[in-house]
Amino acid sequence: MNEKVKAKVKELLASGRIKGFWGLRTMQGNIGPFLFSSPDDLDELVVGDRERPGDTRYPLNKLLVNLARCYPEEVFGVLVRGCDERGLKTLYSWNQLNPEKVVPVGIACPQELAEACECLKPFPDEFVAGEKAEGSEFVSVANVESLSLESRLEHWLDQFAKCIKCYGCRDICPVCFCKECTLEKDDFIHTGDLPPENPIFHLTRAVHMAGRCIDCGLCNEACPADIPLRTLYKKVADIIDEEFHYRPGYGDPKEKSPLNILGEAPKH
Amino acid sequence: MTTKRIAVMKQLLAFTGIEQDRLQLEWVSAAEGPKFAQAITEFTNLIKALGPSRLKVAA
C-alpha cells in the first residue's frame, strides 16, 4: 500500500503538478502528519497502518485548509481515505477549499476497518492502493434506538458526564472551521464548569454537525473519555438524510447543505 | 430554516432520550394575542401531562 502511494506522490511532485503533499510519515517510531515537498524525500511516507489498518489517522484536510489559506495559488496533494474524501467535498461545498487547488491521492480501507468504523463508503471515488471493501450499517445507532426513551437518556447522560471539556472533538474535526465557536460562548453554554452543562454541550455540537459531519470518527478517537460521539453524529447524519435526502460528502460538492440554504421543507 | 432545524432537533432529542413534544414551534405575530395565549396554554397543558423532565430529576 505504502509503495503505490509513494509512486503516485513521486510522480505528482516530480512533474510539478503539486507543490507539496500532506501525508503521514514515521518519526522516531511514531507516525505523524508531514508535508512532503521533494520527490526524493518520500522514504518515510506511510498510510497510517501502525499495528492495525488505519490506527493512525490525522485530520490532514484540516492541515490542508490552513496551508491553502497561506498559499491560495498553490496546488497541494493530500492523502485521503473514503472519509477524508467526503471531508474534502464538504470543505469545497462550504467554500473552505478550492477543488482546483487540491489533488487527492486515495487509498481504500480494508474490510476490518470499514466494519469497525461502520463506514458506508470505505473508499474514495478514485484510489491508488487497497481493495474496495463493502460498506457497513450503523449498528451502534440501531443499538441505542432499541433502548427505551428512559434508558437512552440514562445512557447518554452517563456518557456525557465523562466529558472533561477538552474540546478535542471540535479541535480535531475536519469540518469544524468556524472562527467563533458556540461551545465557547457563555451566552449559550456556561463556560468554566466541569463536567460541562449536559446534555446541552454535546447536543449543541451534535446540531452543528448536522449537514457537515462526514463520519470520519476522529472525534471519537480523540476523546480521552471515550464518549461514543461518532454514534451521536451518525444519527444526526441519518436524520439529515431522512429529512432532506442529503449526506455530506457523498454527492456533488456543488450541492449545499440543506441547513445552509432555504430549500425544501423537512419531511416530518 | 427554523422549521428545518426544529425537525432535526426533535429527532435528536428523541435519540438522546428526551420527549420530543417538549420542543414546539409556533409562528405568532405581535398582533395575534389570542393565538399566542392559546399556543402557550396548549403547550403548558402538554408539558404538565408529560410531567417533570427526567433531565431535571437527574440533575
This entry's quaternary arrangement is heterodimer
Could you say how many structural domains of chain A there are in total? 2
Which bin fits the share of residues in helices of chain A? 25-40%
Tell me the radius of gyration of chain A: 19 Å
Order of helices and strands of chain A: HEEEHEHEHHHHHHH
How large is the count of helical segments of chain A? 10
Q: Structural class of the secondary elements of chain A?
A: alpha/beta
Would you write up a description of this structure?
The complex is a heterodimer of chains A (268) and B (59). With 268 residues, chain A is an alpha/beta fold. Chain A folds into two domains: 116 residues, no CATH class; 106 residues. Chain A has ten helices and five strands. In chain A, strands 1, 2, 3, 4 and 5 form a five-stranded mixed sheet that branches. The termini of chain A are far apart. In chain B, 63% of the residues lie in helices and 0% in strands. Chain B is built from three helices and no strands. Chain B starts with a helix and ends with a helix. The interface between A and B is medium-sized, with 32 and 19 residues.
Record keyword descriptors for this entry.
heterodimer, A: 268 residues, alpha/beta, 2 domains, five-stranded mixed β-sheet, 10 helices, globular, B: 59 residues, mainly alpha, 3 helices, flat
Compact overview of the structure:
The complex is a heterodimer of chains A (268) and B (59). Chain A is of the alpha/beta class and 268 residues long. Helix content of chain A is 37%, strand content 10%.
List the helices and strands and how they pair.
The complex is a heterodimer of chains A (268) and B (59).
Chain A: H1 2-14, E1 20-27, E2 30-36, E3 45-46, H2 60-70, E4 76-80, H3 82-93, E5 102-106, H4 111-117, H5 139-145, H6 149-160, H7 168-172, H8 200-209, H9 218-222, H10 229-244
Parallel strand pairs in A: 1-4, 4-5
Antiparallel strand pairs in A: 1-2, 1-3
Chain B: H1 2-15, H2 33-50, H3 54-58
